[in-house]
Every structure is written in structure tokens, then in C-alpha cells.
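Hello Y.,

Per our agreement to keep a running log of every chain we model this quarter, I'm adding this entry. I've kept the format consistent with earlier entries: sequence first, then predicted structure.
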Amino acid sequence: MQPKSITTDVLDIAYLEYGGSDGWPCIMGHGFPYDVNAYAEAAPILAQAGARVLVPWLRGYGPTRFRFPETLRSGEQAALGADLLAFMDALGIERAVVGGYDWGGRAACVVSALHPERVIGLVSGNSYNIQNIARSMEPASPPEEAALWYQYLFHNERGRRALERNRRGFARQLWSMWSPKWTFDDATFERSAIAFDNPDYVDVVIHSYRHRYALVDGDPAYAGIEAKLAAQPQIRVPTIAIDGDSDGVNPGTAHHARKFEGFFERRVFAGAGHNLPQERPAEWAKAVLDLRKGAERWPAYLR
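Predicted structure for the entry above:
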């Protein structure tokens, strides 16, 4: 399948499209360190069910490119959300089912929280994925802190150099740790690893993991969005949240239910780790289809 591309004010966003152009819009986002191949099996299932599935490479990944050299290579959550909204605008999509996990799930949560009129429903890996930067220095339990070792390494120059010199090695280590029951082969990994050769990958990743701890400034262009996210807004669109019971980086999000108003359902994929749609494509697709079908019964959210 050949990538397509659409231009926004900031990016030339590359994406894959499954299904007919007259299908119901469904936009799925990948995480770090993954790429659009996370939906290689789930997206065709959705397309067969009538969806127009759009899977963009995030900023800093694959063929997606910044348009201007002076643009800050930001990986902050506001930028990811703004990219998703700009992607919808560029394609003329008024409303869509949105979803994802990790970074892609964060973008979907941001748009769902701040622009609910653009969202039919949300499928979110790890539930409420909006960062509480003001409380980022509050410690978690020792096992949770241990799982975040890579974030702390990225806070200093040693981490930047490590990522720059061994992008694939870092990603493969995290895949293995985060999805201990997922037996992926070399070919599967390499299909995604090509995306890490993007010239902006390291800058975007490092900025993301420093900004979320308030260690660097964000892009002033997104300051207004970050200010809104600092209030930790509720998500009011119909939502199905998903966790894997073997996720090596996220211990579970049952406590996030209070951040959602209206319809909210949490599902747990047995034996799945962090890369939910690639590890459990049929179950992920079912969640999307169940959400869309159910959303038709919640007219209050469709105004």
C-alpha cells in the first residue's frame, strides 16, 4: 500500500488509507516507538465493515515531514492534538471516530477533550492519556518508576546520544519489555523500524519526554492548548478504553474512569501488552465497531 500525503500549516503528513472514500471516517494513531503498521491487520477489518480508516505517521516518524526548518521539533501533547485536528481539517473531515494508544491515543484524547463536536467516539489505549505536567514531579511506586527508566535517560545528553546512535536497539528493547507475551519476528519489527529513520525523530522524541516533566519549554504556537490541558479537562464523548493485562509500562487505568462523562466502558485484553492494536487486531477492531454502533444511540454527543 502506497502512502498518501496531506499538507497542513506545519507538516506534510503521510498516512495510509483503507476502505472507500465514502466510508465513515475513522482515524487511528500509533505510539512511540511504533508506526502505522500497528494497524496493518485491524484497519482492513474496519474497512470491510464500511470504514474509511486513516492512519497517519506522527510528526517525527516515517515519511511525515516538517515544512519549515525553523519550526520547533516539539513532541508535546498539544502539538500531537493540533496535528490530528489539522489532519482532519486538511481532509475535510468534520467528525470521526478517533483512537489510538500511547502518543496516538494522547492526540485522540486531546481532540476529544477540547473539540468534542469533532468526535463521534473515542477508543483509547490506556484511557485518559492527557499528561498532568503540573504534577509530573510527584513520584509513583518503585515498580512504576523502574518502568519509566527510558524517560529519565532521555532527560540528559547521554540519553539523546543513545537514541541517536541506536534507534532500532532502543525500540526493540522497549517492544520486548512492554509486550512480554507478544512474539514478534524480525520482519515485523523492521517494517516499523524504518519509520525511526525520519530526520526529526530524535529531536521530537527527546522534546516529548523532557516537556512532559516541564524540563523544556513547549512551542509557543501551542501554549493556548497546553493551558487548557493543564486543567485536566473531562472527556465527554462516548469512549471505550482499553488496557492490556501484560503491559510492561502501564500498570492499568481502572482509576481513570472518573475523567470521563457519559458513556464509558473499559476493556482489558488478556495477554496483551502495550501495542494493543497490533497484538490484538480483531479485538481492537471490535472495540471500534462496538463504539460506533453504540454512539448512534447517544444523540446528545452528536451535536
